[in-house]
Amino acid sequence: MEALQFSGCKGRLLWAALCQNSFAFGTRRFSGTSLASRLCSPWLRSCKTKPGSLPIIQDGSCLKHPGAKRLASNSSFNIPPSAEFVARPVGVCSMFRLPTQRSTEGLDVAFVGVPLDTGTSNRPGARFGPRHIRAESAMVRAFNPSTGADPYHSLMVADIGDVHVNLYDLKDSCRQIREAFRKIIAGGCIPLTMGGDHTITYPILQAIADKHGPVGLVHVDAHTDTGDQALGEKIYHGTPFRRCVDEGLLDCKRVVQIGIRGSSYSSSPYKYGRDQGFRIVLAEDCWMKSLVPLMAEVRKQMGEKPVYISFDIDGIDPAYAPGTGTPEIAGLTPAQALEIIRGCQGLNIVGGDLVEVAPVYDASGNTALLGANLLFEMLCVLPGVKTI
Ligand SMILES: [Mn+2]
């Protein structure tokens, strides 16, 4: 794809930056698919030997820390550096401090940002979601001891940067997103997307359904996002799943919407979705309950066919996630969010997104931190992830 984080950088200048930040990028591997070898391997070699420059870590010998050998095991996967050995603020700001690359070549999973928020109906700001989620993701470690998942020794994962968007033309942005995701998934790579407002899920699902056919949907949100139009427009962040139904992108009997709540425009706000066959689980039916039993039913509903996870951070209560554009009181807890995502383990997940993080409304950064953790949990339940 053409719209990625580092496109446009001068190779040599970028390499100077990478060498200075080599600990974050060079801990494990530089195969043919890594950013390092793809861009400028001769410079890499000179950088390693240039007096006064920081060496790229390939075999651990340049690290003086006794844990260096652990960093440099012979894994063929991309393993984020551990903060036991590499300080968290070190390195270019990538998702989970993973290597970045410009395409999905060699990848099983790609983190990708879609910094679009011109579909927002209330507070803007989700265009900065991907950057802040990446920044806060430095706190997330490599293993998931709660579930036993070991994603980075199971799947090849990298951050492929951001999709180009047109902030002045929402329809054109949808076209750009659709075309970018067609390329991302063409070779079988699973996208995990940082939004952006919820508009982006519509063109993503256009691309996904092109490849997989109509998909099941696990949708966590305060809102059903099945409005028909607003201000005369059919595309904004309140309509993506209506548009998906219009175009046959969803297997409607395999759609569940969880966490729905709030005031409505009409007295029967859930009629449309239920008429399509959606299961709509209101937030009040989740209050003070474990959602483990619900997810057992959801797994039966989804079966073995392809499923997409779309997680709007406003599904969670604004006490935990205030950094969002259309907050609604009395939402889900972070623990319930974990139960939902962990409950997707075993499903045939073909993609997922975490949308509507608008960092400016949360000076603590906790909303983006929550988003980063939920994306890690999505990674941990993807097909092929080994559990220990
Ligand atoms: Mn939404």
From TrEMBL:
Its cofactor is Mn(2+). One of its GO terms (molecular function) is agmatinase activity. Transmembrane segments: none annotated. GO terms for biological process: putrescine biosynthetic process from arginine, via agmatine. The keyword Cell membrane does not apply. InterPro entries: Agmatinase-rel, Ureohydrolase, Ureohydrolase_dom_sf, Ureohydrolase_Mn_BS. The keyword Manganese applies. Keywords: Hydrolase, Manganese, Metal-binding. CDD domains: Agmatinase_PAH. Belongs to the arginase family. Agmatinase subfamily. This is Agmatinase (putative). It comes from Salvator merianae (Argentine black and white tegu). The lineage of its organism: Eukaryota, Metazoa, Chordata, Craniata, Vertebrata.
